[in-house]
Design a protein that fits this description.
By secondary structure, the chain is mainly α. The chain binds zinc ion (ZN).
Length: about 300
C-alpha cells in the first residue's frame, strides 16, 4: 500500500523521535560517530569468550528483548511440539549443557528457555536472551544425546559470544544507521534484517549467514561446553558428518547457513585434544548425562 506524503512525514518524524529516545541523546549523533571511529581505530569495542575483538554497539538488554519477542512470536505462529518424550529429551540435553555455562558469560539474562518446534528441517537456533529452539527434524540427524549436545553447544556459543549483537552492530555501522534496535524492530523491513542477524535467517527468508570466524568460534565454544557437560566431544565430528550426509542436493537449513564440512572437521580436530581432557575430567567428576532419546515415531 502506498503511503501518503503526509503519513510518510509523520512516520519519519516518529522514527527520528524514537532514534533520539532510544539512545537518550538529542542530536548528538556526533557522539556516536566518535564511538564508531574509536571502535574502528581500536579494532573493536569488546572481546569475545575466545579473545576475539568485536564491534558491539547495542545495549545487550535490547538484543535480549528482541530475542524474547521473536521467540514469543515463533511460539504463536509455529507448531510447538508437545510429545512429552521428545520435549523431555531435548530439555534434558539442553539442561546438561546449560548447567556448565560459566554464568558470567551469559550476556545480561539469567534463565535459558527451550522449545521444540514440529518441523522436518534439521535446524536449531539460540537467541539473545537465552531462548533455544530445536526443530524435530534435527533429531533424525543428531542421533545421540551427545550429537544433540554438539548442536545446542554450538548455538549457545553464538549467544555467549554475542554474535547477534556483533552482526547488528556491523549492519548499523555499515549503513551509518544511528538508530536503536527498538526502532528497527518496529519497522518490518528492518525487523527481518535484525532477525536474520540474530540467527533466524532461515526462518525469515533472509539469508544472512554468520561469518566464518563466528561459526568457528561457536564450534569451539560448543565443543568445550559439551565436554564440560560430560558428552563425548568426538561425537561432534559424527554429527557434522551426519549433517553433510543428510544434506544431499538440498542441504538442510542449518547447513546452508553454516561452513563447509571440511573446514569444520579440521577445526574440531584441532580443538579435540583439549576437549577430551575436559571431557575426561568431567567424567571423573561424575558427569554422565542420562537423557533418554524419544522412541521413533
Ligand atoms: Zn552457527
Amino acid at each position: 500500500m502506498m503511503k501518503s506524503k503526509q503519513s510518510q512525514k509523520v512516520e519519519a518524524d516518529r522514527l527520528k523521535q524514537d532514534e533520539l529516545n532510544v539512545w537518550g541523546v538529542t542530536r548528538k549523533n556526533s557522539i556516536w560517530a566518535t564511538v564508531l571511529v574509536l571502535c574502528f581505530l581500536g579494532g573493536a569495542c569488546a572481546t569475545s569468550p575466545t579473545g576475539r575483538k568485536q564491534l558491539i554497539l547495542l545495549p545487550e538488554g535490547q538484543l535480549n528483548t528482541l530475542g524474547a519477542d521473536a521467540f514469543q512470536q515463533m511460539q504463536e505462529e509455529l507448531t510447538v511440539e508437545t510429545r512429552r518424550d521428545i520435549v523431555r529429551y531435548v530439555q534434558c540435553v539442553a539442561d546438561e549443557v546449560i548447567e556448565v555455562i560459566p554464568k558470567k558469560q551469559q550476556p545480561g539474562f539469567k534463565e535459558w528457555e527451550v522449545r521444540v518446534f514440529r518441523d522436518d528441517s534439521a535446524n536449531a537456533f539460540a537467541l539473545p536472551g537465552g531462548k533455544i529452539g530445536v526443530h524435530t527434524g534435527l533429531l533424525d540427524v543428531a542421533e545421540t544425546p551427545a550429537q544433540l549436545a554438539a548442536v545446542l553447544g554450538h548455538e549457545v556459543g553464538h549467544v555467549l559470544a554475542r554474535h547477534g549483537n556483533e552482526r547488528v552492530s556491523q549492519a548499523v555501522a555499515a549503513q551509518g544507521l544511528l538508530v536503536g534496535a527498538g526502532v528497527l524492530a518496529r519497522d518490518s523491513q528492518h525487523r527481518q534484517t535484525i532477525l536474520a542477524a540474530l540467527g533466524l535467517g532461515a526462518q525469515v527468508g533472509v539469508l544472512m549467514p554468520f561469518g566464518r570466524r563466528q561459526e568457528s568460534e561457536a564450534d569451539l565454544i560448543g565443543l568445550d561446553l559439551m565436554a564440560r557437560a560430560g558428552f563425548d566431544p568426538r561425537e561432534s565430528v559424527t554429527l557434522w558428518e551426519n549433517m553433510a550426509e543428510a544434506g544431499g542436493a538440498q542441504p538442510p537449513e542449518f547447513l546452508s547457513t553454516h561452513p563447509s564440512h571440511g573446514t569444520r572437521t579440521q577445526l574440531l580436530s584441532e580443538g579435540m585434544g583439549q576437549a577430551l581432557k575436559i571431557y575426561n575430567k568431567a567424567r571423573d567428576a561424575g558427569r554422565a548425562p542420562t537423557c533418554e532419546p524419544p522412541r521413533r515415531s
